[in-house]
């Protein structure tokens, strides 16, 4: 209950920061977060237009049209395409589009993550004089480089963890198949798969928590990559793990609801009206800002819990 109270306190402080009326937050939304969702929307619409042009929709035995799959509820993204054709020359325009959209998306994500965390940190400490040009000057110096290194390190950690989990699962299943009888193997392998998947999901949540707080560490401290992840792990020790887990699952539930509303009302239901489209479009944008601000407040709570000083001036000197 104490941890739950801390979580509600974090969200309360996050609301105060967002509702502080600081112009920099609105500029971050307009100039950094909003373009990311425009790119995502353009990518979705262009991908739906490109996939039927691959010529695979003529294979009636394996491919259905987008409208048919939507009506049957079997797919929510384009037509069904056999995996063997995904990397054929016919899909070259599709993959080129994904790359062209990925680069600007990563660019804007680095900028709005750095700017959002930096601005929220200064507002949280009572320094309301932070302005957007100052924020961008700090972000464009060395902060974005540290954050990019942290993004890359997190990606490597997820890939390595998934590879190890897959290897362990495959080895365990193979071992049980060769040792015990077929009837017993089905039950035993099911139990093994369950525990391996449970361990994998637990580790996945652990890495997500570490990576989220590591982003804040990379922006507000002179560390990045695996060093920031190590620092993040230290900050989450003790009762902070409970707080972080409660926050994670609460935000994950809200994220699923927001993305579902965004997908249904914006991507596929323009006929519901302009106001519905506008409101549902603003939901993921505001959620992105709330997530950044709440993670920043969590960082301060962790620092306070471990009785560590927060020196924001070092960010200006980078």
Strand percent estimate: under 5%
Total helix count?
10
Helix-and-strand structural type? mainly alpha
Oligomer: single chain
Bulk shape: globular
As a whole number of angstroms, the C-alpha radius of gyration is 23 Å
Give the H and E element order.
Answer: HHHHHHHHHH
Helix share bin? over 70%
Give the total of domains.
1
Which segments are poorly predicted (pLDDT under 50) over 5 or more consecutive residues?
A: 55-80
Task: State the total count of DSSP E strands.
Answer: 0
N-to-C CA distance: 40 Å
Transmembrane segments: 24-42, 147-180, 186-209, 240-262, 268-290
Keywords: Membrane, Transmembrane, Transmembrane helix
Short description:
The chain is mostly helical and 318 residues long. 77% of the residues lie in helices and 0% in strands.
What does this structure look like?
The protein is built from 10 helices and no strands. The chain has 318 residues and is an all-alpha fold. It has one domain (2-316). α6 (182-220) packs across α9 and α8 packs antiparallel against α9. The longest helix is centred in the middle third of the chain and has 48 residues, at 132-179. The model is unreliable at 55-80 (pLDDT under 50).
Topology:
Elements: H1 2-18, H2 23-50, H3 66-72, H4 92-124, H5 132-179, H6 182-220, H7 226-235, H8 240-267, H9 274-305, H10 313-316
Keywords: Membrane, Transmembrane, Transmembrane helix
Transmembrane segments: 24-42, 147-180, 186-209, 240-262, 268-290
